[in-house]
Amino acid sequence: MARPKKDANCVEARQRIIDGFWTLLEERRLSDITIGMVVEQAQCNRGTFYYHFESLDALLHEAIERELLVERDIPGMIFELACGIEDSPSQRLGEANELYRLSLIMDRGGLDLVAEEAKRTIVGMWTALLVPGQAELPEPTREVIEYFTSGTLGLISYRFAREKEGRPASSTIATDDFLKRNAAFVIEQVARYQGMTEADVLARLHMASCLMHQARA
C-alpha cells in the first residue's frame, strides 16, 4: 500500500476525501463507488485514505452523521414533529429538503443507512425522555418510534425524487395531514405501551422541545 502523503494527517485531507465521496455520488449509485474512485477524486492515495478511515463504510457513516447531526439537526426535527403541534409540519419538512446531500444519498441507494443512523439517535432521545436512566425502551415503543422516523425520512426522499424529475411535490395539505396523523398515532401508541396518558407524553415532548430550542439559541 502507498505511504500516506505528507499532509495525510491534516483536516483538509480528511475533508477532501469526504467531499470527493459526495462529488462521486452526484453521478453514481452508492453501491458503484469504490475506494479507488474516492482517492482519485480527492487527489490522495490509499495510504492517506486509510489514515483517516478504516473502510469505505466508515467514510459513509461519517458523511451521513455529519449531514444528520452537524449540518442540520434532522433527528431533532423529526423528534419535534412527533409533538404534532406544528401548524404546518410540511414547512419543517421543507427545511430538511434544503439539505441536498442527505436527500441525495437516500436517492442513490442509502435510505436504509440514513434511517438506521437517524433511528439510533431518535430512539436515544425518546429513551431519555420516557425511561431516564434505563438502557433501552420496551420493544413495542421502540418499533412505533422507528416507524415514524422511517416514514418521515421516506417522505423527504420521495419529495426530493419528484423535484429532481421536475414533478411537483405532494400538496402541502396532503403532507400536513400525513404528518399530523402519524404524530397522533405515535403519541397514542407510546402512551399505551408506556402506561401513560397521551397528555403526559405530550407534556414531556413539549418540555424536551423547549430545552432543544433553548440549546440552539
Automatic annotation (TrEMBL):
PROSITE patterns (alphabetical): HTH_TETR_2 (PS50977)
Record GO terms (molecular function): DNA binding
Keyword annotations of the record: DNA-binding
InterPro entries cross-referenced by the UniProt entry: Homeodomain-like_sf (IPR009057), HTH-type_Tx_Regulator (IPR050624), HTH_TetR (IPR001647)
The name this protein goes by in its record: TetR/AcrR family transcriptional regulator
Presence of keyword Oxidoreductase: no
A Pfam family it matches: TetR_N
Residue ranges of domain HTH tetR-type in the record: 11-71
Domain of life (superkingdom): Bacteria
Annotated DNA-binding residue span(s): 34-53
PANTHER family, sorted: ACREF/ENVCD OPERON REPRESSOR-RELATED, ACREF_ENVCD OPERON REPRESSOR-RELATED
